[in-house]
Fold this protein.
Amino acid sequence: MAKRPNPEGDVTQVVSKELVAVKKQKTGGDKESALITADLSEIGVKRTSGLSSPSMLLTGHEREVMTTKISPNGKVLASGGYDRKIFLWQVYGNCKNHMVFEGHKGPILHLSWKIDGSQLYSASADAFGAVWDVEEGVRVKKLRGHADPINCISPLRRGSPLVVTASDDQTARVWDLRCRAAVKVLRTSTPTTSALFSDDGSQVFTTGADEDIKVWDFRTDEVVLTLDGHRDMVTDLSLSPDGSYLLSNAMDNQLRVWDVRPFVSGERCVKLFEGHQHNYEKNLLKCSWSPDGSKVTAGSSDGFVYVWDTTSRQIIYKLPGHGGSVNEVCFHPQEPIIASCSSDKKIYLGEFDNE
């Protein structure tokens, strides 16, 4: 079920002293914001993106926001959380909340976009996955089969319409969206926190409470490689843009990069990043790559957004603003923009210097 628009959605431009956000009178049940701006070029403020302001605050979720993703064309941001709603926001202009999907009976734990941006995939604590048509605003498929909360849902990058889900029921399931039921069930020994296809779809990566990353052969359903190094539960995986490297985030407060190219000998862990935090909440904090692979980012329980340079391995941005755990951060596919969502019920869109 979809609603247009969300009457409780609100957007504020978060700016320096040169930019001041003011609220208009409430009209027609919607809240609006207007911006009084100075000429940024005259006061020496360098802009790097097409956002209306260097930082945009999106509010409307009633509870913790656990996941957010920007569409492949960069024009729409999707968010979901404990209020069991999925919001679609316009990235540019006033970042209007133009659609709300409802139907899950549990918290939304993860979102992913179809590669062409026509569909959105959701994973929920209600043990169901869902496929949403973002143009029509309707749910077109419900994925039934898991017995416990689904922590992750990820599509195949190219080829057949396949998605993989990871669940607390100790399985990862592969779904062909042309079929009714899962076409593969990969059984693990612990709750599965994340699952991801390799670039060519020949392998599936899974993580769980056992600290290891398992690499499954898609044809035989057998584990062909185990990546060990983390000292606590791995909470998320992200594949590099070229498909050669796997990024992992874990509760040992480390990000690791693994070489997952075939026929590589020796140590697979090639880089390690530190600085971000996991805490007693034990949220499954996400991680991601920039479109060119030069940066990585991750959620952090201390309320900061962390961005690392992949070559130097140094933190290049530690961005404040959130008042709770930052559960996911993602990069815009074309511009130097990052989006972050938090347990404080807020979402930020912000630009950064990409030089």
